[in-house]
Amino acid sequence: MMTLSPFVLVSLSILIIAFTLILVPLFARHQKILIYVSFPLMAISSAIAVIAGIWSVAVGIPESTILSIGLPDLPFHLRLDPLSGFFLTVIGLLSFFVSIYSTGYCKGYAGKRSVTHLVIFYSLFIAGMFLVVLSDDAFFFLISWELMAIASYFLVMFEDELIENRRAAFLYLVVAHIGAIAILLSFGVLAGATGLEGFSGYTFDAMRQTEFPLKWATVAFLLAFFGFSAKAGVIPLHVWLPEAHPAAPSNVSALMSGVMLKTAIYGIIRVTFDLIKVFPLWWGAMVLVLGLITAIMGILYAIMQNDIKRMLAYSSVENIGVILIGIGLAIIFTSFHIPVLAALSLTAVFYHSINHAMFKGLLFMGAGALLHATHKKNMDEMGGLIHYMPWTSTLFLIGSISISALPPFNGFISEWLIFQAFLLSPSLNSPLLNLLIPMGAALLALTAALVAACFVKGFGIAFLGHWRGLHNPPLHRGGLEVNWPMRIGMLLPALMCLILGILPTMVIEWMDKISDELVGGKIATTAGAFGWLWLTPVAHERASYSGAIVLLWIIVVVMLVYILLHSRKTAIHRVPLWDCGFEKITPRMQYNANSFSMPIRRIFGFLFNIREQVRLSNATLHPSFPNRLYYRLRIRDRFWGWIYKPISESSYWISRKFGRLQQGYIHVYLIYSFITIIILLVFAR
Amino acid sequence: MSINLAAQINSIMAALILLTAFGLLVQRRMYGLLHLFAWQGLFLSVSTAIVGYVSGAHHLYISSILTLALKVVLIPYILHFLIRQLHIHKEVEQLVNVPTTMLIGIALVIFSYYLTAPIRELSTLVTRSTLAVALATVMLGLLMMITRRHAVTQIIGFLALENGLFFAATSATYGMPLVVELGVALDILIAAFIFGIFFFQIRTTFDSLDVEQMTKLKEED
Question: Which whole number is the average pLDDT over A91-106?
Answer without folding.
Answer: 93
